[in-house]
Amino acid sequence: MRKIFLILCLAFCTIATGCTNESEQKASVQLLFPNPNSGIWKYIGELCAKLMREANYDVELRFCNNSNDQITQLEDAIEKNPAAIVIGAQDAGALAEPLKLAKEKEIPVIAYDRLIMHTDAISYYASFENNSVGEFQARYVEEKLNLKSGAGPFTIEFIAGSPDDMNAPLFFNGAFDYLKPYIDKGQLVVPSGQMTFSAVATDGWKPATAQQRMTDILQKFYADGKSLNVVIAANDDLAEALIKAEEAVGYKGTPTILTGQDAGANGIANIKAGKQTMTIYKDPEILCGKIVRMVKAVVEGSQPAINDVTNIKNDVMTVPSYLCIPMIVDKENIGIVKNFN
Ligand code: BGC
After folding, report:
1. Which of 84, 91, 220, 279 has the maximum number of C-beta atoms within 10 A of its C-beta?
2. Cα angle 331, 337, 341; round to 5
3. pLDDT of the residue at 2
4. What residues contact 260, with CB distance under 8 A and at least 6 apart?
């Protein structure tokens, strides 16, 4: 009787879940993501793992604390001979050495959001148009300040991301290059004089570092109620650093037009509170969905959809890529953000 019951159960489970044997043979995917305390990496990592599991992969998800940590995780991931490895790099330049073995073992590697440098071991890269992130921030400022009609002068400062993240200079250049003509014409002025990526970069995307830099700038160049009209902050964490710096020094100028990126919990809350003006929404579901399809392709030996075969170069190879389009979000359309609302 018990035997019949077990057979019936097994038959039912097989119908309900696909097949028990199949589940033992699921292809395994290693997901390696950056420090979860930066941006919305924790949310992204967990979402990707969920979508990957739903697509019937056996997933191991890891976040690192720092670059060395990620190198160790990568070595361990390669050791396990997975069907694919997906990496959101902590340090773009630090993974080439361990990736040599992945290449040797023919393990497909897919770069998530951040490009990985100095290696030919990357099968695909999926990200957003990172240049557009900065450009959209700049266009937003242009529109709000009526720069096209010649308005100004307005003061502006920049807070960029980390030099070990290849996205960070793209964000900065996207914004700066777009606004440069207005700086040249004197409609925008940068009292600190800090106008190069290296001058405004924030090591490790650390908000505390940006807050210190902005506190110094506010005290030196914006004392006595002088207004800081615009801050191009590369993401929501860095935008919050400016908010904290202004609060700490008792900033008394007019409200600052403050950009961000990620539509993360802090960005959404600060926009709703009127402390941050806009953010750039890069819907993680779209990007994770692309990654799942890339994994599926490499596992099955087919071709995933890509939309850029020429522009993404990591100094060793041109990486076949899919670049998604980001969106501007402010108080008016904040409802479109699926999470953190
Ligand atoms: C990502 C951003 C994120 C930043 C800090 C960048 O590479 O593209 O979305 O805010 O890293 O984690």
Report:
1. 279
2. 75
3. 40
4. 233, 235, 236, 238, 239, 267, 270, 271, 276, 278, 279, 280
Task: Could you please state the CATH topology (level 3) that the domain comprising 130-281 is classified under.
Answer: Rossmann fold (3.40.50)
Instruction: Identify the CATH homologous superfamily for domain 25-122+283-324.
Output: Response regulator (3.40.50.2300)
What is the pLDDT at residue 69?
Answer: 98
**Per-residue pLDDT, 341:** 80
Ligand 1, CB within 6 Å, residue ranges? 38-39, 41, 113-114, 161, 165, 167, 205, 235, 261-262
- pLDDT at res. 10: 41
Q: What is the pTM of this model?
A: 0.93
In the chain, which stretches have pLDDT less than 50? 1-20, 23
Matching residue, tokens 């100095």: 118
Q: Could you give the residue range(s) of every CATH 3.40.50.2300 domain in the chain?
A: 25-122+283-324, 130-281
Nearest atom (ligand 1) to Cα of 34: 12
The pLDDT, as a whole number, for residue 12 is 45
Preceding peptide of 82 cis, ω within 30° = no
Q: Which of 66, 261, 327, when mutated, tests ligand 1's pocket best, judged by the most ligand atoms within 8 Å of its CB? A: 261
Index of the ligand 1 atom closest to the CA of residue 167: 7
